[in-house]
Write a structure and sequence with these properties.
The protein is α+β, with helices and mostly antiparallel strands and about 120 residues long. It is about 50% helix and about 20% strand.
Length: about 120
């Protein structure tokens, strides 16, 4: 019998949500001409909602990071991470994951605390 890990299900759900939110944006702002759209892809604005969703999905997919225990909020491209992590290494990894997302201006992680064992 094939077992699906809960983490895999969450990553799939977050990815699906990201795809549907992108489809909604495209429905509201259809691309102009294909050639023009291809040239302007990198100039398209990235929304805070998209950043939050992408950071959360990437945290859930990252090994040795408890993505379920980390809350992600984004305001004007500034990502705030909060919650409990098991180690400083997990905190550093979560910050690194968030920083690599397109549109992230900075990451505030003072709300990430070490979980007591």
């Amino acid at each position: 019998m094939h077992h699906v890990r809960p983490r895999s299900l969450l990553v799939a759900a977050m990815t699906t949500a990201l795809v549907f939110s992108s489809a909604h944006v495209l429905a509201d702002n259809p691309p102009n001409e294909p050639e023009e759209n291809a040239q302007n892809d990198s100039n398209q604005p990235v929304t805070d909602t998209w950043i939050t969703t992408k950071v959360k999905a990437d945290l859930l997919a990252t090994e040795n990071v408890s993505g379920l225990d980390i809350k992600v909020e984004t305001v004007d491209g500034v990502v705030t991470l909060s919650g409990a992590v098991a180690s400083k290494a997990q905190k550093d990894k979560a910050v690194a994951v968030a920083k690599q997302i397109k549109g992230v201006k900075s990451v505030e992680a003072s709300g990430l605390t070490l979980a007591s064992r």
